[in-house]
Amino acid sequence: MNGSLHEAATAWRRHLHANPGLTLDEGETAAFVVEQLRAIGVAEIETGVGGHGVVATLRRAGGNRSVGLRADMDALPIQELDETLPWRSRKPGVMHACGHDGHTASLLATAALLHQDTGWSGTIRLVFQPAEEGGGGARSMIQDGLFRRFPMERIFGWHNWPGLEAGTVAIHPGPVMAAGARFELVFDGHAGHAALPHMTRDPVLGMGHAIVALQSIVSRAVDPVKSGVVSITVAEGGTATNQVPARALIRGTARWLDEAVGDLIEARMREIGQGIAATYGLSCEVMFRRGVPVTINHAAEAETAAAAAASVTAIRRDMAPAMTGEDFAWFLKEVPGAFVWIGNGPADNGRELHHPAYDFNDAIIPTVANYLATVAKRALTEG
Questions:
Q1: Taking 80 as the threshold, does the pLDDT of residue 141 lie above it?
Q2: CA–CA separation, 152 vs 148, rounded Å?
């Protein structure tokens, strides 16, 4: 990538950072993407795919192979901490705290590289996905006919990774990121005066025992060589200090890298909720809402990604999977592909993902764009 394109891509990224679009509200971002694609010279653009999704197509005669490259576009409901940043968010309570602004700008830069490059043939789909942050954007695009309307034999994606050396690509041969679920346990009892507890059935007592008991799932029910997370993040019950309330609840998230572990976590959670309710004369409703599945790279595509990355930058193949989730998992259930991490540099001073001081490292854009262009061209030539 030449300096002028890097400069343009940096400007795109900073514009997107200053003008973020929340999950399911990416219309302004999508319009900006279309504007830049047209300025680059991309003629074949489809909007409104699965919501605010944009799919651009590049074609060159002489080949019948096809490949997809994906970037996510949505921001988070987080108030940006650094008010001195020249490109800080102009929308109170909304910011690109996960780097999707950088992902989008990098794919635009990739479009420019591929548009200028005459040394490839076939079809490349550029997939700008909305609603990755819990909004089901990948599934929405699939349901809207993504792979039927825009056929692609393989698909490749990436995420910036704070703490990994800037520009280094990390490749996993199998699981990359975890599956997840959001859970809620609601305990209903009988309200009454706090000085007369024998006349009540206390749901706060049940909630307290559940908080402790749920931690036994991973420590005592899951095979120690497998990964699982149960995190309770919300506890609610009561409004008056002198009343035992009628209801108390806890909420949280669970994560796993093996679907059997997810099934076990859900089963034990239901057993614990019902057991505690029976012990203290309560009723308990357990809700376990599964989100994204495990993000699992296809073996051949992981090798394609590794070879492409090695021709561009340093690679690592020794990093463990992360327990964070990734919507790209749904695409990998439909077509073969691979998802890599690309280092964003040190994760200090708030550079970690979803931190209110996070900012994408613009210096890695050339590496990202060169990797994406290279992996697409390699995928088009492999048997």
A1: yes
A2: 9
Mean pLDDT of 328-355: 96
Question: CB pairs under 8 A, 24+ apart, for 285-289?
Answer: 285/184, 285/185, 285/186, 285/188, 286/183, 286/184, 286/185, 287/183, 287/184, 287/185, 287/186, 288/181, 288/183, 288/254, 289/181, 289/182, 289/183
Q: Are 150 and 55 in contact (CB under 8 A)?
A: yes
Q: Letter for the amino acid at 61?
A: A
Residue 87 Rama label (left phi>0; alpha psi -120 to 50; beta): alpha
Q: How would you label 287-310 residue by residue, b for 16+ Cβ within 10 Å and e otherwise? A: ebeebbbbbbbbeebbebbbebbe
The reported pTM is: 0.93
- What is the pLDDT, as a whole number, of residue 366? 98
What residue type is assigned to position 321 of the chain?
A: P
At residue 383, does pLDDT exceed 70?
no
Q: Are 312 and 370 in contact (CB under 8 A)?
A: yes
The residues that are catalytic are: 74, 132
Q: Supply the pLDDT for residue 118.
A: 94
Strand partners, 179: 256
Is it the case that residue 37 has pLDDT exceeding 70? yes
Question: Which amino acid is present at 67?
Answer: V
